Amino acid sequence: MNIVFDKIITIFHRSVNNQYDPDCSLPNKSASSVRQKCRFMKEKKEDRRISRTRKLMHEALMSLIMEKGYEDITVQDILDRADAGRSTFYAHYRDKDELLLSSFEHLRDLFEQQQQALFASRNTGQDPEVNIILELFRHTGEHHKLYKAIAGKKSGEMILKYLHRYLKNLLIVPVAKLMKSRKSPPVPIEITTHYLVSSLISLITWWLDNNMPYSAEKMDEIFRILTTSSIEAAFGNNKEINGYDIFSNRHPEGSVKAFYSNFIDRNCCPEQ
Amino acid sequence: MNIVFDKIITIFHRSVNNQYDPDCSLPNKSASSVRQKCRFMKEKKEDRRISRTRKLMHEALMSLIMEKGYEDITVQDILDRADAGRSTFYAHYRDKDELLLSSFEHLRDLFEQQQQALFASRNTGQDPEVNIILELFRHTGEHHKLYKAIAGKKSGEMILKYLHRYLKNLLIVPVAKLMKSRKSPPVPIEITTHYLVSSLISLITWWLDNNMPYSAEKMDEIFRILTTSSIEAAFGNNKEINGYDIFSNRHPEGSVKAFYSNFIDRNCCPEQ
DNA sequence: TCGATAATGAACATTGTGTTCGATAAAATA
DNA sequence: TATTTTATCGAACACAATGTTCATTATCGA
């Protein structure tokens, strides 16, 4: 019943390593933080004071967000809680937003590391069995206090935009591949991907706003119920099922491990 | 093919007058502006100076938004362009956001007036033939400069939230009615309405962000393609089509005109 | 014309931002 | 350990924008 969607998930898993939009990592500002992370990964050296300071800032921001929400936090608040000097903050981040984004990247990394571990544990030489959507709901649920304090607020827009781009980035290649086999789909490809991502995000935010009255599993099920038929309709009737044969179920080249080692690398140092 | 959706639209038309969430009008702040509008509608008297000032502020804000976007506008900018005194501004609005919301209500009123006119002109004694979704796209297209300058920005969140509540308000009753005929729909009612509204808004913002590459008609069609099957799936299989018979096509009591006179009234003075 | 009321604009207090710089502390390095 | 390098500190500062106050002036409705 959900073949169409499962197919997309599979291909989306598979092709995630083939492209990486550098712009996805951060909206526009903090190329600095990315660069610092790169330096760290490459040279394996970083002044302890730096990591200590950044860690303190992170923790301060996170705890403050959960207390009073992002909007009401002032730089001084962060400084007080982190017990750091004013100039220190500005030596690391351009402004409050950059710190928030940087913290958010941490969460993203955490999520991807978890996924990778999960994936490795389930790897039986076959294609991945990990349901990304479900895992995404689980991850959101685990950190619901944080996400709730951010999403829906004014500045949540920034984060949601970021999330949108991130997810879209993961979806656009597989969807485009599937679409290519269709002559002229009734709904343009870009719209379909945008629609899917928006749907997912809307369910996540609803879930958070309403104090997660259902399990992550239920939300995953709901998402599938709502979008599966949309995808089918977007492809046009049912003929596209033949098109799927182009994509075999086996991983084309190399092992899944090799695939996922790429997956990890892509989280650091996008060439720009 | 689109019977399900058309049914919803129809019932949604019909029941729009039966409820009005006062909270929908404005997030939390400007109860003042609402009150002023009410006074204006009821007593038919308002100092010319007041309306003149408010009009100037509106126009200043709108032109500034289209020039530099909402974020970069300062109160002083508005004052300069409107050629008004600082204290005058604060006598009318709590802050910039309140002015924006107030301006937005103007747009909403405009939209609803247009709808009402359109509806009256097509009223042949039958049920309405107006496609709200299409009209919404048209209206957005007409004012695309404004909407584009707002949506997607940080503060656009506020407006989008507003729009979300507004549309949801229109949808929730008809959807709930339809749902009631089902024993236990696979997707909870609130999620379905939230999902539908989010989908609509996501298409609108995509349309704006990409400089409206398709006609409003095409977007309306796309929306239907994507959501029709979702609605069907949310109801559960196809049995619900029988449930529709509960709702006759005729307006239960009174004429359509009577219905729409209610529709107009509800835009003013929600009891609170 | 007159009483009421809205607009004016300058002055002000306040808050938060982002920068600068010499002194200090703590790392890395040899 | 001694030396060099580098991060942190913190107070001071300039600045931008907010929102308030109030005596004065202009404009309105009747």
Please tell me about this protein's structure.
The structure is a homodimer of 272-residue chains. Chain A contains 14 helices and no strands. In chain A, 31% of the residues are buried. Chain A has a domain at 3-24 and 131-263. Chain A has helices at residues 3-15, 22-25, 31-43, 48-68, 75-82, 86-92, 96-122, 132-142, 144-150, 156-180, 189-209, 216-235, 240-243, 256-265. Chain A is 70% helix and 0% strand. Mean pLDDT of chain A is 70; it is low at 9-44 and 238-272. The first copy, chain A, is mainly α and 272 residues long. The termini of chain A are far apart. The radius of gyration of chain A is 20 Å and the shape is elongated. The structure holds a DNA duplex (30 and 30 nucleotides).
Order of helices and strands of chain A: HHHHHHHHHHHHHH
Biggest sheet statistics of chain A: none
Radius of gyration of chain A: 20 Å
Question: Based on CA inertia axes, which overall geometry of chain A fits?
Answer: elongated
Overall average residue pLDDT of chain A: 70
Note the total helix count of chain A.
Answer: 14
The N- and C-terminal alpha carbons of chain A lie at a distance of: 42 Å
Low-confidence stretches of chain A: 9-44, 238-272
Largest interface: A-B, 34 and 34 residues
Class from helix and strand fractions of chain A = mainly alpha
The proportion of residues in beta strands of chain A is under 5%
Strands of chain A, count: 0
For this structure, the quaternary state is: homodimer
Summarize the amount of helix of chain A as a percent range: over 70%
